[in-house]
Amino acid sequence: MELMASALDSWVKEYNEAVKLGDDITAMMSGRNSVPSSGPETQRHTSAIRRKITILGTRLDSLQSLLSKLPAKQAM
Prior knowledge:
With 76 residues, the protein is mainly α. The chain has one domain. The protein has 2 helices and no strands. Helix 1 runs antiparallel to helix 2. The longest helix has 30 residues. The model has no long low-confidence stretch (mean pLDDT 85).
């Protein structure tokens, strides 16, 4: 039972981090209007968004993996 709680806690923690990352990406994309349309600042901003999207993809893969490890009764 303790293992289930630990797996569920890990999933919830990973989920919350993924949500925060998604919110960060959304805010950064919304803020693109305040960045010049081209130049180094725009490239840095775009690179930062891409990095966060890559990290989010990794988090989603981790969530899927953690979810598959939960017993069938605990699966969400």
